Amino acid sequence: VQPPEKPLQPEEWNKLREDFQSPEIFEEVMFNSMIRCNSPIDVAKSLLSHLAKRNGDISYSVLVKYLTLCVQQGQVSEICDVYDIMKVRFKILESGAYNLLIKGLSNSDQWRMALTLLKEVKKIMIPSRTCYESCIKAASRHQDMKLAFELYNEMLAKDVVPTLDVLQSFFDFSRGMKDAQLQKELFAILLYLRDNQIYPHKTFMWSIKLWFESIPGGNWRGHLTNIKDSGQCPVCNHQLEDSNLTEEEYSNLSERIIRDVIHGTDTFRKTSPQEFEAFQTFVENRLPFDIVIDGLNVSHIKPKKMQCENLYDAINCLAKENVRLLVLGRKHMLINSSNWKREIMKEMQNKADFFFAENISEDDAFLLYATLRSGKHCKFVTRDFLRDHKACLSDSLTRHLFRKWQRGHQISKKKCFSSVFSQQPAFRYDCVVQTTGDTWHIPYKDVFEEKYSYRVPRKWLCIQQKL
Amino acid sequence: MQSANMFLKKTVRSCVLPFAAQYGMKKDLFPLSRTLSLSLCLKQDNSCKPSEKLDLDAWKKVMKSGLHEEVREMVSEPQEPSSLAAAREILEMWRLAGRLVPENISEEQLKTFMECPSKSAKRKYLKYLHLKELHKKSDKRKMDEKRERRLEAQEQASKMDETKKSSFICMWSNSMDKAYNWRAAQSMIFGQPLVFDMSYEKEMSVREVTNTVRQIVLGEGSNRRSVDPFHIHFCNFKDNSLYHKEFIKHYREAWGKLLITVTDQCYTEIFPKNKLIYLTADSPKVMKSFDHDKIYIIGSMVDKSIKTGVSLARAKRLGLETAALPLEKYLLWSTGAKNLTLDQMMHILLTLKDTADWKKALEFVPKRKYCGFVNRPVQELKKSLDLINTLKLGKRREEVQKQFAKNYSKKYKLK
């Protein structure tokens, strides 16, 4: 239905309603299309008045829809009126109405009222993140940074995840302020990005840059740059943090992978205790390896070639540099077949150590174990993103560790159809927000949306303080 | 820009509006109404005329006047612990806002609701209750209609009032029950055992256990009615477990009289190990034919959050043989998981036992999961699948091959 452009008389509304196929939902449909077309609120009001006269009451859902329209158009006095009506009519409101009220009021000079509303919401439920977002933005827009940060910290304490938008607004509204406490809080936000491995998008990065440069007497200068493969920043020649895990992190991760990924709820799901034990003794006797290869995965690189040929190429390519190789496979590879020639298998076994798991066992788990046991220098080869193994880890901290370790240690081949097995080097530096006190390095995304969790940005913002 | 706006306004005022007023805002003027909506934002200034007559804020007065009665109603609600009452109030507001919320909710359900760990869990639970309520209502309505119809029919029949003569007394359902029970009793002595492994309670949520029991009850029913029933065993069955409670809900006093074997022992303690075959979709071995000397085990588990390898792990641990249904061999699989419900498994096994006809047995696989039956060899199937995919999706050959290799990986890898 198309909403009318002018307020209508009750008779006219009645007629429209009768012409509509299902009159019971006429109001609902009409209000929805008013919201969609952003109709003038006078039209909505005339429908409300008609409803009130006919039924002597207006249902809550219709009120909320009217409220949506008012918020959409920033009609502050109407929002207040609707709130007054709702307050006397209903003991409490539900989250949708509160969201709308807070959003509507926070954009006006009545923004203090939005804060009181937020307090009211807190009494009955955990406020949504849009509630917090509106209030924080309102507070920072009015230069009440202290209040904004209070709300922000409260939000974090309640496990409500802030949007990047809110974080960005902090930097936007703090521009040019000289306040040590404020500076500390903003640094804390940058560290929040670091801890959660969040990469700001381009506009957010600009806000950060402009804020740094606007600090009075701070002498901060920012430059956009690409970091070299060696991990050195071309602007300030600073060496970025390397991607190695600390001893503690490393042992933590190995422990968790054995516990959560390999054993999980039931060791029999991925392997069997006997097999795992056999694998453990196999690995311990031959430690340490330099590269661990997922044989089956590598053997599928080129579908036109024989599978053992693919594997053979890969091993030849990696074996040149006199490294110790371990290839993980399954028992069916040992049976002479069209894809697995016995002679080639024999030749490969001279160049590398092989471990063959049961056909129904998961070799990826073994891959992780062997690599981690061999030590920090050891890398592994597979095209698999290992997402399902990451998902087995129970908390986000370990998952981040896993990703970091994976970035630094996984060699995956590029999409190629050339005859040479080319390898993509593992990252040597760690791709997170980092600081040394007088420098900050912040990786950022060109696009707003993050498409792949394994893909890390290559562009950086380098900020340094000239003293 | 300004002048363009003015021009638009003028044209709108001068030509479109009178036209629209003349014809009203009916739907058959669709192309025209589009232009109208585009010009909506320009309208605010020329809408003042009718609003002078209309009291646009009349609704506020009405809303404010009616409030006293409402407040009084609130007071006379039944007493409940405050947190529950608050939750009830929130639910009520959600219902008013048009969310999917049940009208009536018991205290127990309310507690479950409050224990839901996340917002989406809460929403899902409420939707579930809401749909359940709707079903119940429509069932009741249908029952009422049926009763009315029956009463009418009876009235008519009593008018006819002529009893037919027949050599049987009308006691079909009763005597059918007796016949079924006789067969089931025979199966308990001579029948082929079929084991339900009841050791998955820990892997499931409460609702999954409920669904499991429901499926088993259905399966047991079709077994009882079959020509040659299995001797059903519930193994690893713990008294007072969730399974037990759910079964009692379904069977009530009939639970004690069921002609099946219920035990807390494991199947490995009752039967020789070499005779047992664990049926699981994850098994690398595919069942070729139904063996009348073997004892098949079905895991009594519904896994909505597809937990691969749980039952395979159990079989591995006990060193049992496993098997999967040859779904890929006989069906052109399209969507859905390969794990079937327990009553479907029961139907399939019963049919296999009676006829050894895979095609007939696999009729019980839900139709949405497959496109059709195949009796051709895999190579040929691959070609046709290839063709279908290239036609349907325009995919490159390699990708199709990859897809195929994924679907049929077990066969190729496990030469």
Automatic annotation (TrEMBL), chain A:
Residues 227-462 form the PRORP domain. It is an enzyme of class 3 (hydrolase). GO terms for molecular function: metal ion binding; ribonuclease P activity. It catalyses: Endonucleolytic cleavage of RNA, removing 5'-extranucleotides from tRNA precursor. Pfam families: PPR (PF01535), PRORP (PF16953). PPR repeats lie at residues 128-162. The keyword Transmembrane does not apply. This is Mitochondrial ribonuclease P catalytic subunit. It comes from Atrichornis clamosus.
TrEMBL record, chain B:
Its main location: mitochondrion. GO terms for biological process: methylation; mitochondrial tRNA 5'-end processing; positive regulation of mitochondrial translation. Gene3D superfamilies: 3.40.1280.30. It catalyses: an adenosine in mRNA + S-adenosyl-L-methionine = an N(1)-methyladenosine in mRNA + S-adenosyl-L-homocysteine + H(+); guanosine(9) in tRNA + S-adenosyl-L-methionine = N(1)-methylguanosine(9) in tRNA + S-adenosyl-L-homocysteine + H(+); adenosine(9) in tRNA + S-adenosyl-L-methionine = N(1)-methyladenosine(9) in tRNA + S-adenosyl-L-homocysteine + H(+). Residues 180-372 form the SAM-dependent MTase TRM10-type domain. It comes from the Eukaryota. Residues 137-159 are annotated as: Disordered. Residues 141-159 have a biased composition (Basic and acidic residues). It is found in: Mitochondrion. One of its GO terms (molecular function) is tRNA binding. Its EC number is 2.1.1.218, 2.1.1.221. GO terms for cellular component: mitochondrion; nucleoplasm. Keywords: Coiled coil, Methyltransferase, Mitochondrion, S-adenosyl-L-methionine, Transferase, Transit peptide, tRNA processing. This is tRNA methyltransferase 10 homolog C. It comes from Atrichornis clamosus.
